[in-house]
Amino acid sequence: MLTKAERTKQFILETAIPLYNEKGISGVNIDDILEATKLTKGCLYGHFENKEDLSAQVIDLSLKMISEKIRAAVYKGKTIKGKIFAFLDFYKNPIETYVSGGCPIFNTAVEADDNYPFIKEKVAKVIRIGQQELTALLQEGINNGEFSKSLDPVVFAFKLVASVEGGIVMCRVMDTAKPMQGLIKSLKSELEQYVV
After folding, report:
1. How many Å separate Cα 82 from the centre of its chain?
2. What is residue 92's three-state secondary structure?
3. Residue 89 and residue 74: Cα distance in Å, rounded?
């Protein structure tokens, strides 16, 4: 069971996640966090050394939460194909995302790329792990005879993530989920071509 201080810190982090996802690291200021949490500056700084520490911990929790949500969705699939389809379906509505403002992995990656090298590495690690997990699933599907050996798991895993993340951005900018439905259908159809 969490202590009162731990609960307060968790509350601050969880309240800050959508702010960071919508405004970005550089767009969020301490006053935004104070307004959203209704806490004092002294309370906030009792839990975090400075804004950089707060930002790093918010990003860590955000990336952890989205990764866990994706994994939970994927592992509901009964077959490898079902798991890959569940991964795609997780992204079927790019307008109403798990965290408001879009995909926290992509949003953070774009901002951190040039401005926050320590956060860029956190995002890169999450992306690498996600790619490895998808690749391993696809390889398992090949090994168990579910997919043809002509499927390149590394390339297809990259294609899945790159397509979905790009689709989210485009759909959000155009304010429509419809193209994502077509993209997901197309990616599923492509994977079906490898089913043995």
Report:
1. 20
2. coil
3. 9
Instruction: Report which of 13, 53, 56 is spatially closest to residue 36, judged by C-alpha positions.
Output: 13
Q: Output the pTM of the full model.
A: 0.90
CA-to-CA distance for 104 and 107, rounded, in angstroms? Answer: 5
Using CA atoms, how far residue 119 sits from 42, 59, 60, 99, 149, in Å, is: 25, 8, 9, 18, 37
d(CA 101, CA 41): 26
Rounded to an integer, what distance in angstroms lies between the CA atom of residue 18 and that of residue 26? 14
Side-chain-facing half-sphere of 67: CA atoms under 13 Å: 20
107-149: pLDDT as tens digits: 898 888 888 888 999 999 999 999 999 999 999 999 999 999 9
Cα–Cα distance for residue pair 84/32, rounded to 1 Å: 38
87 near 74, Cβ under 8 Å? yes
Give the chain's length.
Answer: 196
Q: Which one, of 187, 71, 188, 89, lies nearest residue 129 by Cα?
A: 71
Encoded amino acid at 25, one letter = I
Cα 124 to chain centroid distance, Å, stands at 12
Contact call for residues 57 and 43 (beta carbons, < 8 A):
no
Give the separation between CA 59 and CA 141, rounded to whole angstroms: 33
Question: In the Cβ-directed half-sphere of 10, how many Cα atoms lie within 13 Å?
Answer: 8
